[in-house]
Structures are given as C-alpha cells and as structure tokens.
Amino acid sequence: MATIYYDADANIELIQQKRIAVIGYGSQGHAHALNMQDSGCDVVVGLPKTSNSRARAEADGVRVVTPAEAAEQADVIMILIPDQHHKEVFERDIRPGLAPGKMLMTAHGFSLHYSQIMPPEDIDVAMVAPKSPGHMLRRLFTEGVGVPSLWAVHQDATGNAEALTLAYARAIGSTRAGVLRTTIAEETETDLFGEQAVLCGGITSLIRAGFETLVDAGYQPEVAYFECMHEMKLIVDLMYQGGMSYMRYSISDTAEFGDYVSGPRIIDERARDAMRHILREIQDGTFATRWILENQAGRPSFTAMRKSNAGHQIEHVGADLRAMMPWLKPVDKRPEIAETKK
Predict the structure, then answer these.
(1) Active-site position among 108, 113, 277, 316
(2) CA atoms of 273 and 279, how far apart (whole Å)
(3) Residue 153, helix vs strand vs coil
(4) Is the pLDDT assigned to residue 312 strictly greater than 50?
(5) Which candidate, 283, 293, 279, places its Cα nearest to that of 116?
(6) Cα Dmax for the chain
(7) Percentage helix, strand, coil for the chain under 3-state DSSP, each rounded to 5
(8) β-strands 179-181, 4-5: how paired?
(9) At residue 238, what are phi and psi to the nearest 5 degrees?
(10) Are 46 and 93 in contact (CB under 8 A)?
(11) DSSP class of residue 338?
(12) Is 230 one of the catalytic residues?
C-alpha cells in the first residue's frame, strides 16, 4: 500500500524560505504559482518575452521574468511546460542557472525517466504531480481544500530533498487531501499507460466504435451519439463519486446485468494482450522514442491524426446536439483544433 502524507508531515516553512521559479503559466503553471504565492512563498514565473501568457500572469499579480532569469534567481525550479519542450528549455535556459544545492522539479516524470533531462549530480531532483487539471487545483485551494498529488525524489544531493518536496506539496494545497509517495518510473509508466489504454486512447476508441456500430446498423447518428457519448459522463460521474459499485447501484438492474455479461466480451483476453503490449512499449522506451522522433520531425503523423479525428462524424453530430443543451456550456473547437493546445 502507498504511504500517504498530510499537512502534519510537511514543514511549509522550508519552502517559504526559498525562491521558487515556475517555468510556464498554463493549466498547471498558473495554479502552482498562485497557490504558492497565497501560501506565503516567494514566487517568480519564467516566460519568454514573446509569450501570450505574460500579460495574464502579471495581471494575476505574479512577477514575470524570462525562464533563464527565473532559473538563475530561484532555489527551486518547477518545470510546467509540455514534455516535448523540456529538453530544449532545460539545456538553453535552466542548466546555466543551476548552482549546487538547488532543486529541479517536474509535475510528470517523462523527461527525467526517458533521459530528456540529465540534471547535474549536485542538485536535488523531485516531482510533485497533482491528480487534477490545474484549474481544479487552483479552485479547490481557494475553497480551503486540495487535490491529491503523487510525489517522488529522483535525486537527493543535499539530504533535504524529501522534506522540501513535501513542503512544496503543502504549499500548493495537496497535503490537505494527501500525497502519495511513488517513483519517477512508476508515475511515468502508469500515467502513460492510463492515458493510452484507458482514459484517452481506450475510451475514445470504445466510444467511436460503439457509435460506428450503431450507425452502420442503420440507427440515427444522433441517437447513437446520445447512447455512446453523451451518457458516458453520467456513468463516469457515478464511478468518480462512489466507485463501480455505486454506479451499478444507481443504474437499472437490466443495465447492471448487461454490464456483467457483455463487458468481458468487449474487454477480452485479446484486449488485455494489447494492454500488456502497450505497457511493454512504455516500459522499454519504444513509445517515448516514437514521440520524441515525431516532434523532431515536425509532428507530421500527429498533425494528420489530429485532423482526421477532428473530422469524424461523431464530432459533427455531437457539436449540433450540444448546441441544443446550453447548460453544458458547449464548445466547438473543430476548425481551430490545431490551435487549442499552443
């Protein structure tokens, strides 16, 4: 069982005595910076002079400098930019500012686990990975609660890395809920597997396959969308709140019986074999190498797959149906899909 740490296990004064640089001001970056600032920490945000996020960060009341200046000034440097940019930013902006005894942090272990970042031996290296989007991390902090995080120490050069990492987790509010100790390898490999086999790759492929099965059988696309896509959130929300047992308690007996007899026919031994193969590719670095090379080549396959999936029938049908439900606050980003994650 994982060991869980709470506020009483973390001395927040340790991080309050340091200057923290947050590199990036996206979903996670803004939440970490603002939560720590509200916790009495000395925070500076590192952004390029051309970044569109500079104005928002300054409006939020945080001090903004370039990434290189932030790394040079800070005692603790948290990298909160997309994985594919870690190596370039680390080598260009962060490494020159690393002095012995500083701490380098990430919120995901990809770049450390797959050696995109090779930190010097005389600094601490650690991770605090909140298990929520940044906007939720920030909102719950302002409400006096927090979201759980995973934490790990990758390199302890000073002998104080564990205590300082826990102090960081407390400053962003996560020890209010509890933080689970892990390793860089475990967090990276399980995170990638969950995304690919279940949360993103698995669920989107399952939804689309169900939609296509009904449409190919002659059923109306709109009805297929409701049954295979729209109601997914209702089921997931029940599981999120009370687990699978609560979901099964809440649905009809007919649906529950169908769950038991049909689910294992979809996720059968062939599907499990595919999951094991995906996990092996994550563990041995095959997936990481593929993603790194894809970025180095200018992302041709990624861009093509993004465009193809954005044009699928389920996206067009869904956009029309969501427009009928204003309480969902629907969004339609199909024409701008390539811009949404810049």
Answers:
(1) 108
(2) 10
(3) strand
(4) yes
(5) 293
(6) 67
(7) 60, 10, 30
(8) antiparallel
(9) -65, -45
(10) yes
(11) G
(12) no
- Residue 243, classified by CB atoms within 10 Å of its CB into exposed (0-12), middle (13-18) or buried (19+), is exposed
Place of tokens 């339609």: 332
* Residue range 209-267, pLDDT digits in tens: 999 999 999 999 999 999 999 999 999 999 999 999 999 999 999 999 999 999 999 99
Tokens of 272: 């499990």
Query: What gap in Å lies between CA 89 and CA 51, rounded to an integer?
Result: 14
Q: What is the DSSP string of 77-111?
A: EEE-S-GGGHHHHIIIIIGGG--TT-EEEESSSHH
Contact 164, 103 (CB under 8 A): yes
Cβ 130 vs Cβ 28: under 8 Å: yes
pLDDT digits (tens, 9 = 90+) for 314-333: 999 999 999 999 988 888 76
CA distance 67 to 225: 45
Q: Could you tell me which residues come within 8 angstroms of residue 174 by beta carbon, excluding any fewer than 6 positions away?
A: 128, 130, 137, 146, 147, 148, 149
The encoded tokens of residue 69 equal: 């200046």
How far apart, in whole angstroms, are the C-alpha atoms of residue 147 and residue 328?
24
